[in-house]
Amino acid sequence: MSNRTNVDSKKCLFLISGASGTGKTSLVGNILKSDPNIDLSISFTTRKQRGQEVNDRDYHFVSEEQFDMMVKESEFIEWAEVHGNLYGTSRKWLENTIREKDVILEIDHQGASQIREKISESVSIFILPPCWRTLKERLANRATDSNDSIDLRLVNAKKEMFWALSSDYVIINDDFDRAIEELRAIIMSARLTSRQRRRDILEMLKDLP
Fold it and tell me: Of the ranges 6-10, 28-32, 183-187, 191-195, which one carries the lowest mean pLDDT score?
């Protein structure tokens, strides 16, 4: 099966990345609550459920065998190994949803790179912490990971943060309210300059006397 996607991005696709502890999940959650015209892609993962996580709400939790089968069947538009676990985005869900609504993918830089190769008009947004010390404190205060897991995430964070340099936009999440306003501004800007908006303008111009 071809790895090409049939996505015709009539709507906007936002790729939100950042190291663990930068607050991207909280930022995305705020946007989803306040904007009914945008939807979140729920990733498939082989990671174990944590705490209050709910299957098919937070993630689609699957076995490694199930995940490998989905890879072989080209069911993912992107997939990657992150912190020792596998994550992937459903091709079919994205193709269907983006025809009607804008979509957010909360995704690591590997997945974001794969998506950008296939959907050139996707908008990449990288979330950074205000400083390294703050990132370490946030990871420790989450109390959802073991010390070994935190150490691994910090090691990976040092590499991941360089991907901010190749992203379309960068938000430094120092003040949460300001970070939300910056994210909303990026979303609005993308909507106003989207391919669909240009199509609408061309249709309007055709009717000019």
Answer: 6-10
Task: Give the residue among 131, 140, 97, 69 at the shortest CA–CA distance from 5.
Answer: 97
Q: Give the separation between CA 173 and CA 69, rounded to whole angstroms.
A: 38
DSSP secondary structure code for residue 53 in this structure: -
pLDDT of residue 144: 74
Residue 1 reports pLDDT greater than 50: no
Amino acid at position 96, single letter:
N
Given a cut of 60, is residue 75 above it in pLDDT?
yes
Looking at residue 2, what is its pLDDT? 41
Residues 80/108, Cβ–Cβ less than 8 Å: yes
User: Rounded CA gap, 170 and 182, in Å?
Assistant: 9
Contacts of 19 (CB under 8 A, 6+ apart): 129, 135, 153, 156, 157, 160, 161
168-187 mean pLDDT: 97
Closest C-alpha to 46, from 77, 84, 89, 12: 84
Nearest to 62 by CA among 177, 73, 137: 73
Instruction: Name, in order, each residue with C-beta under 8 angstroms of 176's C-beta and a sequence gap of 6 or more.
Output: 23, 26, 27
Q: What are residue 88's DSSP bridge partners?
A: 44, 79
60 has which bridge partners? 44
Residue type, 43: S
**pTM confidence score:** 0.84
Among the listed residues 138, 117, 113, 136, the one whose alpha carbon sits nearest the alpha carbon of residue 126: 113
